[in-house]
Every structure is written in C-alpha cells, then in structure tokens.
Task: inverse folding
C-alpha cells in the first residue's frame, strides 16, 4: 500500500481506539471530569502522565531542533527531564496531600485570597493557550503531509477529535485515552529509530548506535556528521555555539517551568493516595526516559541522512519524499544561481534550501527509505503525542474557568450538574481558540512550548514552592511575585518575537538571554519581589501556617514524635 493508504489505516485505527476509550470512560460527575474520581492505578497514571507531558514538542520537534542545533539542543533534554524529576520529588507529593483539584485551587486556598486565585487562573489560561498552540501546530503538520490536506484543515480535524473525548470524558476519559496514546506514540517513535540504527550502525539499540561506528566503515556516526557539517559551512554538530549563560537560563526555565505546568501537576490528583502519586511519578519517569534517551540518536540519524541525500543533488533528481514534503510548503528550494543543483550551506547568502525543523522526525523514515507502514505509524504517533497534551491543556483551561473562577469565585452556589455543563462549554470554546493558535503559531513547536515553560517558571513555580515550604509567604507576596514574573516574561517574549523580531539576536538580548530562557530571570524577579513584599506585610493566619506544616509532615509523623517523646 502507499504511504497515504497506510497513514489512513494507522490514524484511523488509533482514532477509533481513542474515541472508544472516551465513550467507555466518560465522566459522570465533576470528580470524574476534574480528577478521574482519584481512582487511577499508579502505573496507568504514570503512562498517562508521560503521554500528557511528552507533547508534539517531544515527539515531533525536539529531535528536529537537536538535528539543527547540535549540542546546543541538549538544553531541551536536560531541561525537560530534569524538570520532571524536580516536579516528582519536590512538589507532586505535597500538592497531592493538599487534596485540591487544580493549581489555582491550591494557590487560592494556600494564600487565603480570591485575588490570588484569580491571578493564578489567568496565568494558567495564558500558559495553557501558549502551550496548546504548539500541539495544534503539530497536528496540522502531520495532517498536511500525510493526508494531503491544508494545515488549516488538519488542525480542524484534530480539534474535532480532541473536542469529542475531552468534552465527553473530562479527566477520566483523557487519562485512559492517554494510556492508549502513550502506547501508540512510543511504539511509533522506537520502531523507525531501531530500523535506522540497524541500517546505519548495525546496532538494534539506537542509544548505542548513536555513539558507534557506521556500518559502511566510514568512521563514527558523530565524526562523520561533524565533517559533513563543516564541509557545508555549518558549525560542527558536536560543538556548542550558544553562550553559557543562555544555555543555563534555558535549561533552568524548562526545568522549573515543568514543575509549574498545571496540566502535569493535576495528574497527581487522579491517584487514590499520596504514596500512589510518588509511585506514578517514578513510572512516568521510566516511560519518559525511553523516548528522551532515543531522541539524540534520532536527531543524528536524521541529520546525517538529510545531508548525504540532498546536498549537491540536481533538483530534477530529488527523491519522492522531497517532492511530497515540498507540496506542504515545509521544505522549499530556491535556485539562486540557476544551476538546478541544491546548495545547502551554513552561508545564508548562498543557501538555497529552507527546511522546517518540525518535519525531521516525520520525514526521517521516508529519507531512510523505510517501509510505508512505518511512515504511517510515525504519523499516528505524532498525532497521539500532540492530541494527548492538547487534551490535558484544554482540561486545565476548562477547569480553571468552571471550578476556580465560577465555583470558587463568582457562583459558589452553582450545582454540580451546572458546573459540569460550564466545564464542557469552556472546553469547547478553548478548542476553538487552540485551533486558531495552531493555524497561526508564533514559532516552531518546541520553541512555542519553551515559551509556555518560561511563563510557567516565572509565575507558578515560585508561588507553589514558597506555598509548600514557607510559612511566612503571604498573599501579598505571592500575588505581586506572580504578576511581576509573568508580565516581565511575557513582555520580553512578545517584544523580541513580535514587536521587534529584527532585534532577536544575542547582542540585543538582556545579558545575552534568549526569549526561550528569559523565564529563568522572570522566576528570579518573582522571588525578589515576593519576599520583600511578604516581609513588610501581615503574616498569614495561624490556620494557614498549620496547613503548611501539615502538607510537609508525612501522615502519622506527629503521632510517632509524641510516642518517642
């Protein structure tokens, strides 16, 4: 069968599975809609968390970024995996013990303030919409290439699928759908990686193939890639070009941004008890590591195959995969010197080839001439990664509006039935807005997601961390810190990405920190504002200080201390 036929089969089967799971696990109460009734087994929750966390940025874009950035791309690996460890060890168990549905719920109660709750709701919606833009962009890319439709049509199809199981099933439907999506995405990621590793290096395990000699005896994979890059005018693949401070800030922003992402944190409320939250966090890390340790190998394989297949090739003789991707507008050839030969070089003035970084993982099986069913499988995996995270983000938006803004603020007397209706309507409206951002994204998938992590780092992380570990932090400090952090970070990103993109260069950045890494500075500003404000204003009530102690102390520890005494 053709690539298109296999894609229809793979995507059709996976979508049927997702819809079937959503119908089977549809939400019947607000508890089901918000936290899946808090009855999800730890292993399944770990799998769902991995799918929720490994978005289109992880599946589609991360290896593409590493393929083009080389060693500098490691900031995404270090930041995202380190951030998940930080979340699992430092925050998740304490938040689960607090027992609230959402991050704004925690902030509103911990800081005994409706204003704090409202600020957190605004931050959650802002961060989630920024993040979901990258997911819908990934959906559009997959559909535009493999189903031969416009990106706008592809986004609309993805919107319809997400709307169905997010609105119908809520967190319960999303959780079990994400378990299925994880199985699809990890299988789809590993199969071509294993195939290509065997073809290029003779090793079944891609992580080993990444550091091995090539099967044709022409040297080590990375040595050859360094040589190809230098010969074409690019920097060596294994050499970093980013300033050390920027690398540090991007890594830090991604790490603490992970720990502040509301759609990931809420997953730890879906398990029955605190110990289950810890166990599910460990399982999620295992499931995440499978893909993340494979990504550098996929990036190196894709970059090597691209350079050896396309460079100095007559345009009339390009492979069929090039023509198919060219039709989507995501790869383009501009014959500047009129010789009909593709010149791909690091010299911008002479370069004739434009490649969207987001296509590298999706095009990799075709470039390596793998069977058509593998290409279709990768398409299904990319959709699974994008849709799983999109659904989790849309649920955060809907619960922020229905539960945090309405139930806990404007209409505390609203019935559970009406609250559920509002949550579903909010999810539907969020799908439409997400679709718009998917059609008009502000950058590459992983780049857009990096902005969302920076916003989360600058707003949520300090408020959550100080809320758990500091009795002295009060509502005035938390509110002022969140506002300063997110406003500064958002303004910096908007200025360099939209207002004055020509100035988006290291010499114009503050201290050489890029928009992707500015969330780290925003986080420091949050702390720097929150602490002085808290110290000069009234301390939290005694009940709140006892609550902070109760969150940190393991259940039963107080009784044990009394017995020892």
Result:
């Amino acid at each position: 069968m053709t690539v298109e036929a296999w894609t229809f089969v793979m995507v059709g089967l996976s979508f049927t599975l997702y819809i079937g799971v959503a119908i089977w696990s549809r939400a019947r109460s607000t508890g089901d809609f918000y936290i899946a009734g808090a009855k999800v087994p730890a292993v399944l929750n770990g799998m769902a968390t991995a799918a929720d966390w490994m978005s289109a940025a992880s599946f589609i874009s991360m290896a593409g970024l590493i393929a083009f950035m080389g060693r500098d791309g490691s900031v995404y690996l270090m930041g995202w995996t380190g951030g998940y460890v930080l979340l699992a060890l430092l925050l998740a168990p304490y938040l689960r013990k607090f027992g609230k549905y959402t991050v704004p719920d925690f902030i509103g109660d911990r800081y005994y303030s409706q204003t704090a709750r409202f600020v957190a709701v605004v931050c959650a919606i802002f961060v989630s919409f920024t993040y979901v833009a990258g997911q819908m962009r990934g959906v559009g890319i997959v559909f535009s290439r493999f189903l031969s439709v416009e990106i706008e049509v592809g986004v609309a199809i993805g919107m319809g699928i997400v709307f169905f199981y997010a609105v119908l099933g809520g967190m319960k439907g999303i959780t079990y759908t994400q378990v299925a999506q994880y199985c699809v995405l990890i299988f789809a990621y590993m199969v071509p990686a294993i195939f290509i590793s065997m073809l290029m290096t003779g090793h079944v395990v891609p992580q080993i193939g990444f550091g091995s000699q090539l099967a044709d005896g022409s040297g080590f994979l990375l040595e050859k890639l360094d040589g190809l890059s230098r010969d074409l005018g690019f920097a060596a693949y294994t050499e970093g070009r980013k300033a050390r401070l920027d690398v540090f800030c991007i890594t830090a922003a991604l790490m603490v941004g992970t720990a502040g992402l509301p759609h990931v944190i809420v997953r730890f409320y879906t398990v029955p008890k605190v110990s289950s939250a810890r166990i599910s966090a460990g399982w999620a890390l295992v499931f995440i590591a499978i893909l993340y340790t494979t990504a550098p190998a996929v990036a190196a394989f894709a970059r090597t195959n691209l350079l050896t297949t396309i460079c100095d090739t007559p345009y009339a003789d390009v492979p069929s995969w090039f023509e198919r991707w060219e039709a989507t507008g995501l790869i383009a050839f501009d014959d500047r010197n009129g010789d009909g030969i593709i010149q791909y070089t690091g010299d911008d003035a002479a370069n004739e080839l434009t490649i969207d970084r987001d296509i590298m993982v999706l095009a990799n099986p075709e470039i390596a001439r793998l069977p058509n069913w593998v290409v279709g499988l990768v398409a299904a995996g990319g959709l699974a990664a994008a849709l799983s995270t999109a659904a989790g983000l849309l649920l955060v938006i809907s619960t922020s509006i229905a539960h945090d803004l309405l139930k806990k603020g404007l209409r505390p007397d609203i019935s559970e039935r009406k609250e559920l209706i509002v949550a579903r309507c909010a999810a539907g409206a969020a799908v439409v807005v997400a679709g718009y951002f998917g059609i008009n994204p502000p950058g590459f998938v992983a780049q857009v997601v990096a902005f969302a992590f920076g916003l989360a780092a600058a707003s949520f992380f300090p408020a959550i961390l100080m809320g758990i570990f500091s009795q002295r932090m009060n509502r005035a400090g938390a509110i002022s810190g969140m506002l300063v952090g997110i406003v500064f970070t958002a303004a910096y990103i908007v200025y360099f990405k939209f207002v004055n993109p020509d100035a988006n260069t290291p010499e114009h950045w503050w201290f050489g920190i890029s928009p992707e890494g500015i969330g780290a500075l925003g986080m420091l500003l949050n702390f720097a504002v929150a602490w002085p404000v808290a110290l000069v204003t009234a301390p939290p009530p005694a009940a709140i200080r006892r609550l902070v102690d109760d969150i940190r102390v393991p259940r039963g520890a107080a009784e044990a201390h009394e017995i020892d005494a």
In short: Residues 208 and 297 are 9 Å apart (CA to CA). Strands lie at 331-333, 353-355. The radius of gyration is 24 Å.
